[in-house]
Design a protein that fits this description.
alpha/beta, binds S-adenosylmethionine, 12 helices, seven-stranded mixed beta sheet, two-stranded antiparallel ribbon
């Protein structure tokens, strides 16, 4: 019987060809990432050992991961990991994959808030935002809500991974329902894509990320429109509401914040309106 010996560099080259043929964006990056996952190694190892032979198990694992990626499954759902705010977080299809743009939300809050205070993260998903505050604000009281029990399970696992179990109080609830006021900060990256724009959303997002994490009514502002009055009721006078938005809904969100103080829009690195912050009037 002939035993096929496949070296790491050949495997990677074949993978890049397969991913390219299947129109996966950034095929080299994806090929490397999934190879690191299949081998349980880092990038430096890949480059240091191009002639290393893959075991049958490793080759099978790589094959399976490539086939998932080729049908559009995001790499993070295959590897089960995504980095956010310098932390390695667990992700599954129960949660939205944390995006780098969401770090602007964290930065905005950190610029407003001293080390103490009560903060609520609404729609916590993987828990990424709440975990960033647990890391940066050691004296803050942090609450995190989600309507999805499956998402909260992942958020709790991520909190445990960084020994933040006692720093974050998780609540399964609709937005802020049942939380005790007053809060200094209410922050949310809510679902904000309109069902009417569905065909403009990347196929990978549409097919594989949780619908309830992405879409919010026909126009995209349904959840935010319900959240604003709830936040107004629970924030202390002078407290801040900080929301992630898109360029599509930013003007509507400004309108919904009529009567709030110091409403400001913060753009991301691509100059797209990304965060809206507003201060509750006295
Ligand atoms: C866009 S994702 C954000 C997840 C995470 N905070 C992040 O930034 O990656 C929105 C989250 O809001 C949750 N969600 C949707 N509707 C909700 C509601 N009515 N009450 C609480 N959470 C809700 C979804 O389950 C999802 O986890």
């Amino acid at each position: 019987m002939v035993k096929w010996i496949v070296q790491l560099k050949q495997s990677l080259a074949a993978a890049i060809a397969t991913l390219t043929a299947n129109k996966v964006p950034s095929p080299r990056l994806n090929g490397e990432l999934l190879l690191m996952f299949a081998l349980g190694c880092d990038r430096a190892y890949l480059f240091a050992h191009p002639e290393r032979e893959l075991t049958n198990d490793e080759a099978a694992r790589y094959e399976a991961a490539l086939s998932e990626r080729s049908r559009g499954v995001p790499a993070q759902y295959i590897t089960g990991h995504q980095e956010f705010w310098g932390m390695d977080l667990i992700v599954t299809p129960a949660v939205l994959i944390p995006r780098p743009e969401t770090e602007h939300l964290v930065e905005t809050v950190l610029a407003l808030q001293g080390p103490k205070g009560r903060i609520a993260d609404v729609g916590t998903g993987s828990g990424c935002i709440a975990l960033a505050f647990a890391k940066e604000l050691p004296q803050a009281e942090i609450h995190a809500t989600d309507i999805s029990p499956a998402a909260l399970e992942i958020a709790r696992a991520n909190a445990a991974r960084y020994q933040f179990e006692t720093r974050i109080q998780f609540h399964q609830t609709d937005l802020l329902h049942g939380l005790r006021p007053p809060f200094d900060i209410i922050v949310s990256n809510p679902p904000y894509v309109g069902e009417s724009e569905e065909d403009q959303v990347q196929l990978e997002v549409r097919k594989f990320e949780p619908r309830s994490a992405v879409f919010s009514g026909l126009g995209g502002t349904e959840v935010i429109a319900r959240l604003i009055p709830q936040a107004q009721a629970l924030l202390r006078p002078g407290g801040w509401l900080v929301l992630e938005v898109s360029g599509t809904i930013v003007d509507q969100v400004r309108d919904l914040l009529a009567g709030w103080n110091d409403v400001r829009v913060i753009r991301d690195l691509q100059s797209i309106p990304r965060v809206v912050r507003a201060q509750r009037p006295a």
